[in-house]
Write a structure and sequence with these properties.
It is a single chain. The protein contains 7 helices and 15 strands. It is of the alpha+beta class. It has a single domain (13-52, 70-306), classed as phage-related protein like fold. Strands 1, 4, 11, 12, 13 and 14 form a 6-stranded mixed β-sheet that branches. A 5-stranded mixed β-sheet has the order 5-15-10-6-7. The longest helix has 26 residues, at 105-130. The protein starts with 12 loop residues before the first helix and ends with a strand.
Length: 309
Amino acid sequence: MSMNTSQARVVDPILTQHARGYRNGQYVGGALFPTVTMPTRAAKRIEFDRSAFKRRRTRRAPGTPIVALEFGYEGKPVALHQEALSAIVPFEHMADASQVPGLDLQQIGVDTVLAVIALEKEIQQAGVARLAANYAAANKAALAGDDKWSDPDSDPLVQVNDAIEVIRSRIGVRANTLMLGGKLASKLKSHPKIRDHFKFTTSASVTMEMLRAYFDLPTVVAGDAIYDMPDGTTVDAWGGDAILAYVPLEGERQMPVPSYGYTYQLSGHPLVEPSRQDAGIRSWVNDCLDEFSPEMVGPDAGFLFQAAL
């Protein structure tokens, strides 16, 4: 049955386009959970098994049939959930802003809401990545004593290389991404072994680019996001943990290759609905909505360093 105009969701095309292009540079969860668009809320995700690593009979004698190969996969439902907030601009503020050239309170309000939803996405991504129950025993380590990277006697490079080998032995590909909690990244920059490594090449402070070179990984990022609890306590979203993972390059994300995780997002989102007047609060209102779910699809492609700080 066709959908009439009253049943279809109407969006503000300009603000929606702005919302889809919105990026908050301080949030880095996408490094572990890149976005994959889902056509419907009822779609299933595909998890490729180890078929690609099995040795197959590929040699063929003349006149014999070609062996057929079908890669196995397990389809699991994706539980997309909706995040929604309204951007509210009082009439009085709008009137005042109209006297200031270039000040668009409506867009500022939408940006503020988008930032809140982006933070929620980051918190959820960190929650999935830091949950020890998501990993096999061989793919996690709870650091203690002088194994903690905050201890000057620790050796983060050896531990990361060992974890890279664990991942390679499970999926046949080396890890390419290291996520560091914000405080942990700062501590590593002053780690004596890391500073000693660069002492003959530069006197400058250790940078994230230098950490990438030190660990020989193309992607090393610091998760700096924080949020406040209802009691006023401030929490680091990524805590003192480190997550090592293999994340496919953008052009490989639809191929049967192992992958740590994805953020599944409903097609056409985020979106901003047209402005409406709320006479009760004498304000313009824009509803901003997003639907997504960060999910770990290949725990064998990751390694969790718990309490590295």
